[in-house]
Amino acid sequence: MDQLSQINNGISVLEIIYVIASVLFILGLKMLSHPLTARRGNILAAFGMLFAIIATILFHTKDGKPIGNIPWILIAIAIGTVIGWVIAKKVKMTAMPQLVSFFNGMGGAAAALISMIEFPNVSPELIAEQGIANGHVLAILLGLMIGTVSWAGSMIAYGKLDGWIGDMRIKAMKYINLTILFVLIGFIVFIMTRDVQTTSELTPLIYIMFAVAVIYGVLFVMPIGGADMPVVISLLNSFTGVAAAMGGFLYNNQAMLTGGILVGSAGTILTVLMCRAMNRSLLNVIVGVFGGGGSANVTVDGSVKEISLTDAAVLLSYSKKVVIVPGYGLAVAQAQHICHELDKLLEEKGVEVKYAIHPVAGRMPGHMNVLLAEADVPYEQLIESDEINPDLPNTDVLIVIGANDVVNPAAEDDPSSPIYGMPIIKARDAKNIIVMKRGMGKGYAAIENMLFFNDKTRMLFGDAKSTLQNLVNEVKSL
């Protein structure tokens, strides 16, 4: 009786800690909505997960027995912690999208492994009572399918972002992906309609389903190119959250369930918002058929005009309003700190400086926000594209630093362009435009940018970091 009481007390303590962990997850997510509180929110959520892990090890029981193999569990946690810490500390800001894809993929892989391990061990008593078509089995199969797709897709996304995997474009890809998706759903239906006594009889089907899910995850991401990768990363992130939530259902674990639901819902909402920003449909994202990488039929009308550092410094210093449009090139050059130095220098001269942030600038959701926050650029200076566009006709100088597709007029002018219909920062509306680029190379969507040939545009060629440093020196000397 005393032992039973201790077990019940343990379960009560465990459930309370799971609720506390869930609250910390929610508070942490809320604090992530603002750069000033994001760091604390991340730490708060991390403590929530730490509490949940410790409580599970100390208080979780199954059939009245505590968790076994605790030394191995602690060793695995220690190894994973060290590896994750070292990778996160050493990663460059330019490789942050790859890191996000990699870590997200590991979450999907963990969810898939849980399902593969748990399926053969479904209780025969549960099957005898409810049949194989029960919520427990459904959670396992959904966790396997979604987690595997997330893992395989994230690994391909990692390779594409890192440049060692290219695009694979086949006209029939839409139908191929839809067919594979229906096959995966068919596996779930087939398994859950079998008349069996134990799930071990169907275990080979699980491995076949895993292989098919891997193929779908690969083919789902392979065709995607252009400026669309941030949307895919967001969607894969939501997949991992949903897969983790399936694990929460499986183990009746409130903390795991809450964390998965938060990640899944937040990722889905972000994906929908980014689809709107890209003028894409969510269905096209799921079947993996959207993306740039094509070539618009553009006839270049005009010539490229350059500007000297001195002239650029004079133009900026005697302006009233300046808008900076950051892009992936700013991250590559690691020039965010010097860029902030320039904006502070101009503000000392009475110039109003704002940053125009496009939702998909960079290679992951919020890439530019993270980049500029690292340089301590005040959050109030970061203005979303749809908010700043109406004010651009009153802007004296707009500086484009390493951005391309998000300011490309082809999105509005050329129906044959792969980015046609995508909302952009309407850079050409500004009175003067300065574009900082290494050369005349095309952007991630691989199409010509007619903004560079605009009569109001002046090109300032060179590495963004050195160019900005020289520009700062020129402004100081005036």
Report the total helices. Answer: 18
The pLDDT mean sits at: 86
In percent terms, what proportion of residues is strand?
Answer: 5-15%
Poorly predicted runs: 289-296
Tell me the domain tally: 3
Structural class: alpha/beta
CA gyration radius, whole angstroms: 26 Å
Oligomer: single chain
Largest sheet geometry: 6 strands, parallel
| Strand order across the largest sheet | 5-4-3-6-7-8
* Helix proportion: 55-70%
Would you report the number of β strands? 8
- Overall form: elongated
Order of helices and strands: HHEEHHHHHHHHHHEHHEHEHEHEEH
Measure the end-to-end span.
Answer: 85 Å
Question: Brief description of this entry?
Answer:
It is built from 18 helices and 8 strands. It is of the alpha/beta class and 478 residues long. It has 3 domains: 1-90; 92-291, no CATH class; 309-477, 3-Layer(aba) Sandwich (Rossmann fold), CATH 3.40.50.
